Amino acid sequence: MKLSLSAVEWNAGSWKFRADETFTPGVHLVSGRVGSGKTTLALLSARLLQPDAGAVEYEDIRSRTLSFQYPEYHITGSTLHEEAESYGVNPSAACARAGLAGRWDEDPFRLSRGELKLFQLSCLFMRQWDLLILDEPFSALDCRGKLAVCRSIGENRSGIVLVSTHEQHILPKTDYLWEMRTGKLTFRGPLPEAITAWESAPGPVRMLREQGVIPANLTRDDILEAVCRMHE
Amino acid sequence: MIEVRDLVYRVLRIGGLVIPDGSTALIGTNGSGKTTLLRLMAGLARPDSGSITVDGTVPVPGSTGLIDEYPDRNALFSRLADELAAPLRFRHIPCEEADRRVRMAAATVGLEDSLERSMDTLSGGEKVLAALLSALISSPEILILDEFDSHLDFDSLLLAENLISSSGARTVVRCTQNMDLAARCGRVIVLHRGMVLRAGSPEEIFPTLEETCCYPFSRRAGR
Q1: What homologous superfamily does CATH list for A2-63+128-198?
Q2: What ipTM was estimated for this complex?
Q3: How many CB pairs under 8 A join A and B?
Q4: Which of A205, A218, B87, B111 is in Cβ range 3.0-4.6 Å of A201 for a Cys bridge?
């Protein structure tokens, strides 16, 4: 199974996106400055945007989905019940998974943004995907919600999972690091080796690195373990 | 100073709360009422009963600088330059002066080459930065920030925090899930199911959260 962006180019005025890379099964974390092209990468990878040049190629990818940065973009139903059904999942189970048990008849727009985000992600995670693209899955979530999303991402790692995020503190167990820099996709490598060269690393990782401590991976447990090593 | 008395509105049930001048973080689980309380402070909603006042008066829309949690809701105009200039034009600032301030503001976050761009072509994080500039450009005394930080990378967040701290705003109230940011505020309010669970300084609040995932990384690291 693989996703290839072969000599892909996409232009918006003077801004250019460039990628010539391949994603294989595992969790791929994509970071980068605001406006660097992370969402463009997500849209191109999901084939919701057509490249101006090159090709986005799927090999053995039979199911795919994209979670948008803003959960309200996904809403199609007037109740959580209808919303869950639009994903083809059991509404009661989806509500329970998102901590909204018994609230299946509520209007999605009456939820807080964090509740809506977790509900929408819960619906996605109740199915298995060959290609799962998550654009800022942690924004608006409280720390327990972020940890739940990290667990769910781990359960889908037999497929290709692309996670683009600015999250600073709670990240999933990651196989490969990528960075977007002014429209150019760059492979940083597997964890933990890639951490050393990670330019857009979150604050805690930068702090640890400055102290000469490299975490084994990016999960909360990995970061806390590295903090302990720093104190030794 | 923001004062809440016997407030009932949607999930919120707050008997009494005083938010002094300075920086305050509202924290709490998803659905605890943080955004609802911020919208009341910004005058975008009225309580069913009880009262909320800002410097002794009932807040009205536009009386505070506000960044909404939905970036698309912040924009009124299609072009970035117009969006940033709007608060100045509404105050009848001469066009030349408004344009000068817009160019200066855009340059502080690296958006100076994007002024002619349509708002809908900005990335999510760029929209948040635009909303921040738009909120700050008319130098508001009260700044209400609804979790804007979750859309920003580390470096952009540092930039934004510098802009906020140098803005001259007398009162900054923000909700955030970034506990390191909350720990840097002068005061922290914990909301739970619409009620104020605790309020106090970070030194008073965070020790009670040490066994949870809400405990700031900076404190665990001794920074």
Answers
A1: P-loop containing nucleotide triphosphate hydrolases (3.40.50.300)
A2: 0.92
A3: 119
A4: A205
